[in-house]
Amino acid sequence: MSATDTALDKRDDTLISVNPATGDTLATYRIDDEEAVRAAVAKARTASATWGALSYAERKKHLLRWNSKLVEKSEALCDLIHAENGKPRDDAFLELMLALEHIAWAAKNAEKVLKPKKVSPGALMANFAAYLEQRPMGVVGVIGPWNYPIYTPNGSIAYALAAGNAVVFKPSEFSTGIGNFFAAAFREANPELPDGVFTTINGYGATGAALVRSGVDKIAFTGSTATGKKIMAAAAETLTPVLLECGGKDAVIVAADADIKAAADAIAWGATGNSGQTCAGVERVYVDKSVATELIAEVKRILTDIKPGSGEKANYGPMTMPGQVDIVRRHIEDALKNGGKAVLGGPESIKDNYIEPVILVDVDESSDAVAEETFGPTVTIRTVDGIDEAVRLANNNKYGLGSAVYSKKHGLEIARRLAVGCTSVNSVLGFAAIAALPFGGTRDSGIGRIHGAPGMLEFTQPHSIAVQRFTIPGMALLSYSRTESTMKLLRKVVPLLHGRNK
Ligand code: NAD
C-alpha cells in the first residue's frame, strides 16, 4: 500500500491536499526536494545543539507549553483532521487527547529514564567507577502515515524531542496540513527557541526517501511494511539506524468464559472504527465454539446500525486513501471465493469511498482476507476448538503487532502465549493509550518500540564512562607493566569467580 505507487504521486513541485469526503482542494504545498530536505536537516542540526543542551526541566517546560497550545487550538485542529483525514471530529479529539498524554509522559519522564546511572564495575574492575549515560542522537527524521496523523508520528516526535533531539517530520501526503499544524503549534508555543527544533518537510515518498539519505541520525518510520523495507534498505547505505512501525493483522481471542457482550462491543468498534484504518485494529477473531453463535450474532447486531459518512452522526468517515478501497474489495471477494460467508454486508457494502461494516465468517486461513492487512471496516471470525487452536492460528501470521484476549479467568495466561508486541486483556487497543507501555511489533510489523521508557531510549545513544579512581599496585591489567605475580593471582581468582557452577 505504498503511497508512492498511487496515481496521486505527482511529478511536479506541488502537493494538493484534498478532502476525502468531498474531493475539494484544502491547500497546496511546495514539495521539498533533496536540496530542501538537506537544508531542513542542516537547520535542525544547528537547533539540536541548543535544544540538546537544555536541562530536562527546561525541555519539559517547552513540551508542556506545546501541549497547552494544542489544547488552545484544539477546535481548529480537530476541524482540520476531520477535513483532511475524514474521521469524525470526536475521533479527532480522542486522537489529540492521546497525543497530549504521550507528550506529557515523555516530558515528565525523560529525566527519570535517561539520567546518568552509576553501574557496578564488577569485582575485577573494583578500582573503577562506571557510568551509563544516554545522549541525544542529534537529528531524528520522522516519516508518518495518515491514519492517525498526529497520534502515530507523535509516538516518535514527542519522545525524540524529550530526549534532546531535533526532529524533521515528513507527514503523509494525505495529512500534510495536519502535520504542519502540529509542528507550527510547537513553534508558536515556544517562540524563543531557535527555528528547526521541530520542523516539517512536505511531499510524497520521494521526499521521505530524501530524508532517509539526508544524514539524519535516526529514521523513525510509521507506515506500510513494503515502505518500511525500502527505508531499511536505503538506510543501510549509511548505517542510519531505523525504527519501523509497520502494518498489522491483529487477532482477538474470545475464550469460552468471556463476557460476550463486552467482547462483541470491542470487536465491533476495533474492527470498524476509523474505517478500519488502524494498524492495531481488529482484523481477525478466533472464538471458542461454545460461544461462537452468540458472539457472531452480537457483533452483527451492533454493526448493523453502524454507518460511515461525513456528517455529525456518522460513526466513521470515508476511506482516506482512494487506493485502499480496491484492496478491501479484493479481500472481501477473495474471502467469499475461499469458503467464507458474509454474515453482514459483502462487496455491495463498498459505496465509492465509504465502506459499510462487513463480517466474514470461517474464511480459509490462507486467503488474503486472513493473511494480509486489509485496513478497512471488515473482520473475519473463525470458530475454534479451544484456546490452543486459537493461539496457534492467531500466531500463524506474518504480522505480530497487537492482539486482544477476552476471558474472565485466563486472560493474562493466554496473552503471554501470543507472539506479538502488545496485547489487551478484556479490551482492545488498551496498550496504545497507556503512555508508559511501549508499542510496536514483531516480524513484518516492524523493528523497535515507540512510547514508554523503551520508546525514549530509541532516540538516545548510550555513552559508557569508566573512571579509574585509584590504581592497585601490581594489578595493572591494561598495561605492559603487568607482572607475572598478577597473572598468577588472576589464574586463582578467575576459577573462583566463574568456575564453580556445576
Ligand atoms: P505508506 O508506507 O504508504 O506511507 C507512509 C509514509 O512513508 C508516507 O509519509 C510516505 O510518503 C512515505 N514514503 C513512501 N515511500 C517512501 C520511501 N521510499 N522512502 C521514504 N518514505 C516513503 O503507509 P500509509 O499508507 O501512509 O500508512 C498505512 C500503513 O501504516 C498501514 O500498513 C498501517 O498498518 C501502518 N501503520 C502502522 C502503525 C504502527 O504503529 N505500527 C501505525 C499507523 C499505521
Overview features:
2 domains, disordered N terminus, 19% strand, 502 residues, 6-stranded mixed sheet, single chain, binds nicotinamide-adenine-dinucleotide, Aldehyde Dehydrogenase, Chain A, domain 2, 7-stranded mixed sheet, alpha/beta, 22 strands, Aldehyde Dehydrogenase, Chain A, domain 1
How does this structure look, described?
The chain is of the alpha/beta class and 502 residues long. It has 16 helices and 22 strands. Strands 12-15-16-11-10-18-19 form a 7-stranded mixed β-sheet, with helices on both faces. Helix 9 crosses helix 10. It is globular, with a radius of gyration of 26 Å. Bound molecules: nicotinamide-adenine-dinucleotide.
| Strand order in the sheet with the most strands | 12-15-16-11-10-18-19
Estimate what percentage of residues fall within beta strands. Answer: 15-25%
Query: How many separate structural domains?
Result: 2
Fold-level CATH name of the largest domain:
Aldehyde Dehydrogenase, Chain A, domain 1
Q: End-to-end span in angstroms? A: 55 Å
pLDDT below 50 for ≥5 consecutive residues: which ranges? 1-10
- What Rg do the Cα atoms give? 26 Å
> What is the CATH superfamily classification of the largest domain?
Aldehyde Dehydrogenase, Chain A, domain 1
Biggest beta-sheet profile: 7 strands, mixed
Overall mean pLDDT stands at 96
Quaternary organization: single chain
Number of strands: 22
Helix content: 25-40%
**Count of discrete alpha- or pi-helical segments spanning 4 or more residues:** 16
| Structural class by helix and strand composition | alpha/beta
Q: What are the distinct ligands in this entry? A: nicotinamide-adenine-dinucleotide
* Level-2 CATH architecture of the largest domain: 3-Layer(aba) Sandwich
Global geometry: globular
For the record, the CATH class of the largest domain is Alpha Beta
